[in-house]
Amino acid sequence: QVQLVESGGGLVQAGGSLRLSCVASGIIRSIYAMGWYRQAPGRQRELVAFNTNGIGSNYADSVKGRFTISRDNAKSTVYLQMSSLKPEDTAVYLCHVRINTGPVFDFWGQGTQVTVSS
Q1: How far apart are CA 59 and CA 108, in angstroms?
Q2: Per residue, what are the HEC states of 19-31?
Q3: From start to end of 1-118, where are the E strands?
Q4: Has residue 2 got a pLDDT over 90?
């Protein structure tokens, strides 16, 4: 099992910045990938960014050049630095972790609200 605790969401004006953090605990040595998804009201959950061991990071086209994902493996933490925020970035942001213990398992955080005002 992996437990995820997110923090860093809040209300920000358009053009502003926020930094999200997600701390993982549990079977952390088996973590294969860490990332962020988001879900806005009435919309499907969408991938924002993820980082895979030995491969690197990928981003949704809508956030490329504005968001940066990073990991501190010593702290079992993944960050999402969000800059030049837009009202359409408003959503609940969820931390996601994939572990590989032979079979692969996905775990989700509870989410943190990000609201960008125009």
Answers
A1: 18
A2: EEEEEEEECHHHE
A3: 2-7, 10-13, 18-26, 31-39, 46-52, 56-59, 67-72, 77-82, 91-100, 104-108, 112-117
A4: no
Nearest to 73 by CA among 111, 35, 24: 24
The tokens describing 69, both together, are: 């994902």
Q: From the CA atom positions of the chain, what is the Rg in Å?
A: 14
Separation of CA 29 from chain center = 19
Q: What is the pLDDT of residue 94?
A: 98
How far is residue 35's CA from residue 60's CA, in Å, rounded to a whole number? Answer: 11
Q: Which amino acid is located at 57 in the chain?
A: S
Identify the residue whose tokens are 């860093």: 8
In angstroms, rounded to a whole number, what is the distance separating the alpha carbons of residues 3 and 24? 6
CA 12 to chain centre: 18
As given in the structure block, the two tokens for residue 92 are 């609940």
Q: Tens of pLDDT along 12-57?
A: 999 999 999 999 998 778 888 999 999 999 999 999 999 998 899 9
